[in-house]
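Look at a sample.

——
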Amino acid sequence: MTLFSRRAFVTAATASLLVSCDSPRTGHATTTPSAPPRTGTSPAPSTPSAGGAPRPLGRTVPVRLLIPAIDVDTPVIRLGLAQDGTVEVPPVTAHDRAGWYEHSPTPGRTGPSVILGHVTVGRHGDGVFRRLARLGRGERIEVRLEDGTTPEFTVDSVRTVAKADFPADEVYGNVDRPALRLITCGGPRTGDEYRDNVIVFATLTSTPP
C-alpha cells in the first residue's frame, strides 16, 4: 500500500535528517514530499491477521512516545514542511520533544512511520533521543495515539550509519506491514555537527483490544 510518493519523500526527508541534530538549521531539499491520502481516523479491528501479526490500524495521529528501556516518555508533535520545502525537525528548546513527520503513515498503519528526535539540544543539554543508540533488539516501544489507543512496536534492529551513507531506501521505502523508524544523530561530534545517524527499525507487534 503506497501512502506517499517514495522518491519525493526520500529526497526531501533525507536532506533534512543529515544535518546537525542540535541546531535549528535544516538541510536543503530539491523535492517536496507528497502528503499521504487521508483515510479517516477510526482504527481498524485489532484482531490478529491470518499470519498472526496484528492488523494495521486506521489513521490516528501520535501524541506520545514511550520507550521504557531508555526512559523516554515524551509528547509527540507534528512536523511538516518548512517554507523552503525541507522537512521540519523538532524545535531546539529546553523541553525537548519528539516529532512525527505528518506525511509518513501514522503509527500502526501499513508503511514506515517516521519519528525524529534530537540527541542534544544546544545549550539546553541532552535531547529526548540521547540514549536511542542503547536500544536493543526485542525491546518495546509504545506510541499513544490521539484516539486513546496505544499500539506496541518491537525493535528489530538499531543501526548507526555515516550520514554520507544514509540508507534511504531501507528507512523510507514502502513495506507491507506497519513499521516504525526512530531517527537521531550520533557518532563523533565536531562543534554542533554529528557524523552519523542512529536509526531504530521496529515492527508493530501488539494493538489494543
